[in-house]
């Protein structure tokens, strides 16, 4: 990942996990479509790990994750990990907001 700064805005360059072309974004943690292949991904980095998040709506998302992990292991890039996005808000949950409901009490 490369970081550029333009007019006080930090622009990061991240590689698309599908087509491997460089994309520029101000926030790689937000799920966004690749400018070249159109597949959605996000990336979260810490000091010791690079986490690539794959859109779960992609056909064969689990297979894409397995392929990426195998490729990175073979290349010795052990600080990278790929996961499938499983956020609740993507599932179209219909019903009352669960966080506002009282927690069940053990009897």
List the helices and strands and how they pair.
Elements: E1 2-6, E2 9-15, E3 22-25, E4 32-33, E5 40-45, E6 50-54, H1 61-75, E7 80-84
On the 0 to 100 scale, the average pLDDT is 81
Low-confidence runs (pLDDT<50, min 5 residues)? none
What order do the strands of the largest sheet run in, or round the barrel if closed? 4-5-6-7
Number of helices: 1
Strand content: 25-35%
Largest sheet: number of strands, sense, barrel closure: 4 strands, mixed
Approximate shape: globular
Alpha-carbon distance between the termini?
51 Å
Number of strands: 7
Query: What is the helix fraction of residues, given as a range?
Result: 10-25%
Q: What oligomeric assembly is this protein in?
A: single chain
Q: What order do the helices and strands follow?
A: EEEEEEHE
Our count of domains comes out at: 1
**Helix/sheet category:** alpha+beta
Question: Radius of gyration, Cα only, in angstroms?
Answer: 17 Å
Structure, explained:
It is a single chain. The chain is 14% helix and 32% strand. By secondary structure, the chain is of the alpha+beta class. The protein has one domain. It has a 4-stranded mixed β-sheet with strand order 4-5-6-7, with helices on one face. The longest helix is centred in the middle third of the chain and has 15 residues. The radius of gyration is 17 Å and the shape is globular. The model has no long low-confidence stretch (mean pLDDT 81).
């Amino acid at each position: 990942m490369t970081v550029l700064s333009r007019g006080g805005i930090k622009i990061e360059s991240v590689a698309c996990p599908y087509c491997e072309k460089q994309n520029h974004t101000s926030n790689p943690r937000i799920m966004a479509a690749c400018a070249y292949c159109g597949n959605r991904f996000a990336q979260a980095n810490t000091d010791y790990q690079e986490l690539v998040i794959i859109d779960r709506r992609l056909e064969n998302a689990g297979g894409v994750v397995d392929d990426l992990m195998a490729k990175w292991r073979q290349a010795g890039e052990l600080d990278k990990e790929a996961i499938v996005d499983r956020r609740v808000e993507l599932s179209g949950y219909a019903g009352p907001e669960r966080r506002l409901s009282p927690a069940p009490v053990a009897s």
